């Protein structure tokens, strides 16, 4: 499938080597404050302290120095971009929206925060393990063509490639989110030629995709109260249409409002009911991946 044939915009992902985790900067700055010299290499960045001055460099080229007062302002759960003008938090601020890479100490890979909400599960697991659990629940296998709805930092698309998917089409509505992903070292495999990023509103894009095109669909939308259209009967019917017969859908839901009523909460129960009405069968909740798995029948 060539997305441009269907009038879709393809985003060219270009990883940028400019990021360094805040906790690393904070640790070296602490050594500085004690009068000790330190040097730590992290990926393509080097953080060092000499004679009370903190220096950060990328590939030995771009270099930034901070005095003790500047170093005290650093936040350990942030990711910073090294530029010729200094260290800049990797974040987006605009009216009605705040996004940033969040990388607290002990987390293997950064997650994305949008308006205070974590886009990955980080309690008891890291974001990449979260993505791999979703891909495993979808039973992605070698040679599969996968549709990934809501790219984010791209961990689900990357995990699908790791399991042997021959092609992953991933839809993201926000250029800003993709710009943050380009600065995230753990997202660099989104530049793989097998990953095709479609820029657009998933509720509109999916209607332009051809019938019976995907072996697997992994649907990881924002919360219901943020993007209700991605939980609608109309959207589920479109997923059903683009899945190949026998194809599997994994729909991340979490377990919101689980305590209301018996069993799963009303949002999960509503998802199950609408998927069944759309024609899906073998519908069940996967506890490990925290979402609903459903299958399109092989024959109708």
UniProtKB/TrEMBL annotation:
It comes from the Archaea. SUPFAM superfamilies: S-adenosyl-L-methionine-dependent methyltransferases. Residues 146-247 form the Methyltransferase domain. It comes from Pyrodictium occultum. It holds the Pfam family Methyltransf_25. InterPro entries: Methyltransf_25, SAM-dependent_MTases_sf. This is Methyltransferase domain-containing protein. Transmembrane segments: none annotated.
């Amino acid at each position: 499938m060539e997305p441009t044939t269907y009038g879709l915009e393809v985003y060219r992902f270009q990883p940028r080597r400019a990021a360094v985790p805040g906790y690393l900067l904070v640790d070296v700055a602490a050594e500085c404050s004690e009068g000790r010299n330190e040097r730590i290499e992290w990926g393509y960045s080097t953080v060092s302290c000499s004679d009370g001055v903190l220096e950060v460099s990328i590939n030995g080229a771009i270099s930034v120095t901070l005095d003790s007062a500047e170093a005290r302002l650093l936040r350990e759960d942030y990711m910073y971009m090294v530029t010729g003008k200094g260290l800049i938090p990797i974040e987006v601020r605009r009216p009605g929206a705040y996004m940033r890479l969040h990388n607290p100490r002990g987390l293997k890979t950064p997650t994305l925060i949008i308006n205070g909400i974590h886009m990955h599960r980080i309690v008891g697991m890291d974001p990449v393990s979260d993505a791999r659990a979703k891909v495993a629940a979808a039973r992605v296998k070698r040679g599969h063509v996968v549709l990934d709805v809501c790219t984010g930092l791209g961990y689900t698309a990357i995990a699908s490639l790791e399991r042997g998917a021959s092609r992953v089409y991933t839809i993201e509505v926000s250029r800003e989110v993709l710009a943050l992903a380009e600065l995230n070292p753990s997202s660099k495999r989104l530049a793989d030629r097998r990953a095709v990023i479609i820029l657009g509103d998933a509720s509109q894009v999916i209607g332009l995709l051809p019938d019976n095109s995907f072996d697997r669909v992994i649907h990881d939308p924002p919360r219901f109260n943020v993007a209700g259209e991605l939980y609608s009967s109309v959207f589920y019917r479109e997923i059903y249409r683009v899945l190949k017969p026998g194809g599997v859908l994994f729909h991340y839901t979490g377990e919101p409002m689980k305590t209301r009523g018996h069993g799963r909460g009303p949002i999960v129960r509503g998802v199950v009911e609408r998927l069944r009405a759309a024609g899906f069968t073998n519908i069940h909740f996967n506890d490990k991946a925290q979402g609903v798995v459903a299958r399109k029948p092989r024959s109708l």
